[in-house]
Design brief:
By secondary structure, the chain is α/β, with parallel strands linked by helices. It folds into 2 domains: about 1-30 and about 45-60; about 100-235, Rossmann fold. Helices cover about 50% and strands about 10% of the residues. The chain has helices at about 5-20, 40-65, 105-110, 115-125, 130-140, 145-150, 155-165, 175-190, 195-205, 220-230; strands at about 100, 125-130, 170-175, 210-215, 235. Strands 3-2-1-4-5 form a 5-stranded parallel sheet. It is globular, with a radius of gyration of 40 Å.
């Protein structure tokens, strides 16, 4: 009996060739000559038919429109590390490698006035400040009279300080209020310390840092709050 399936396959391949010029025409011959027989004719024709079917499938894929591309299996991900809160420095409570500066000391750093004891402090420690200290210094620069912080400065010098405040160096850390706001409220609840001082103590506690203030801003409220929070408190003369 003639192999009618292979004949149909030949016809399909020929029609595929007419639609896709990129596929070469395929012609198949007989496995054995006329009038001859061989025990391997059946298996050889079966293998040939399987090759015909694979070519038909390849032709269909190359001619078909909208065929989705095979997806690459997802790559295994590595283990994720533990995320640390921004600005949080690990270390013991007496670690003084980071200091929190009040607005008077921050003004001296940005203005380039770092001499004596304060100069040595700045050179040997990393620096931080608080949101409210930063805002109060900005208000002093923006104000017409300059306020207590920059009232004696010239207009040109104040403008230079304003540019430094706008481009605050990344080396001076200001923790976001969301990390210290609740603790600030707890410290200020008793009423013995201002919101300004409460944030200073909360930031120093959060960073495990020392709190340094200008000696003219020293007071019993901030000093006692720092002692209760076990924060190293220092006053700096200018």
């Amino acid at each position: 009996m003639p192999n009618t399936w292979c004949g149909r396959a030949f016809h399909q391949v020929d029609s595929m060739h007419e639609r896709c010029s990129a596929i070469p025409r395929v012609c198949f011959g007989a496995d054995v000559g006329p009038g001859r027989s061989s025990p391997s004719v059946g298996p050889r024709r079966w293998r040939a038919c399987r090759r015909h079917r694979s070519r038909i499938r390849r032709a269909h894929r190359s001619c078909g429109a909208g065929e989705a591309a095979p997806r690459r299996p997802p790559q295994p991900r590595g283990s994720r590390g533990v995320r640390r809160l921004p600005g949080r420095r690990p270390g013991p409570r007496n670690d003084v490698s980071l200091v929190v500066l009040d607005d008077h000391l921050l003004r001296e750093v940005l203005g380039g006035e770092q001499v004596g004891q304060f100069g040595r402090l700045v050179e040997s420690n990393d620096l931080a400040t608080t949101n409210l200290y930063y805002v109060r210094l900005c208000k002093s620069v923006v104000g017409a009279r300059g306020g207590a912080l920059t009232g004696g400065w010239s207009q040109e010098r104040r403008r230079a300080l304003g540019r430094r405040l706008l481009e605050l160096p990344d080396s001076i850390l200001i923790p976001p209020m969301r990390h210290t706001g609740y603790r600030l409220a707890e410290l200020a609840e008793g009423g013995r310390i201002s919101t300004l001082g409460a944030e200073a103590v909360a930031v120093a506690e959060h960073l495990d840092a020392s709190l340094c203030v200008w000696e003219g801003d020293d007071g019993p409220g901030i000093r006692s709050a720092a002692r209760a929070a076990r924060v190293n408190y220092r006053t700096i003369p200018l």
